[in-house]
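User: Sequence in, structure out. Go.
Assistant: Echoing your sequence, followed by the structure tokens.
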Amino acid sequence: MTTRAAHVASGKVREIYAYDSETLALVASDRISTFDVVLPTPIPDKGLVLTGLSAFWFGRTRAIVPNHLLQLGEDGRTMVCQKLEMLPIECVVRGYLAGSGWKDYRLTGSVCGHELPDGLEESARLPEPIFTPATKASEGHDENITEERAAELCGERAYREAKAVSLELYRFGQAHAEARGMILADTKFELGAAPDGSLVLGDEAMTPDSSRFWPASSYAPGTPQPSFDKQYVRDWCERTGWNKEAPGPELPGDVVEGTRARYVEAFERLTEVAFVEYVARPEIVL
């Protein structure tokens, strides 16, 4: 793509440019957000990890669902993508009981309307992965919703297709991660409609920003798990007493370095590509 693109939007992490009415460029920055607030301290190379991992998964899941990736940029941060009409929900799949799912379970014994067995511990593996949709909040926090509410927002047919695709993507990602010594505890997908109405996977896929990855070697239910994702930053933010409203706190150097190391290790384990090789030749992940 050599055509100049116009800047059209800034997300929490990505800058969005439009080439025309059908084609976008998504450029992943090193910004990091927790509790839906962008923190003032960037994580070096984070955007490269997000783009590289997304491209890796997009290249391996086309048999499950088409995706929006048209071209991976030479900078390793940019994806040229097909523009989609996105569904109004986050498509969240949980294979383990963690995060907001664990909080909901402790209060109600269920997660987004899914009744779960009594006596489950934090981080427990669920009998089967469950689909737990969430709202997309333009301001404030995303909220877990029931499947019935999600079907109302999307339309029954689109919702059922999105649910089936999301569960299949999760199972594929979980099997791949397990073979490489990692657990994909949960993840979220964003799906949209192409001009012909077909369902297409957009945004990013199974990255440390959109997923919880745990080391399988130390997995032990009953407590929070060490992770390869931004849970490390979330935990630090929780300990500061921050009220989770903007502006967020500056991150200390050890948290920045520790977070970068976790993102890079996740990339290398999942892709089996050295990060320095990806930086030199992004196309290696395709």
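User: And one key feature?
Assistant: The chain has seven helices and 16 strands.
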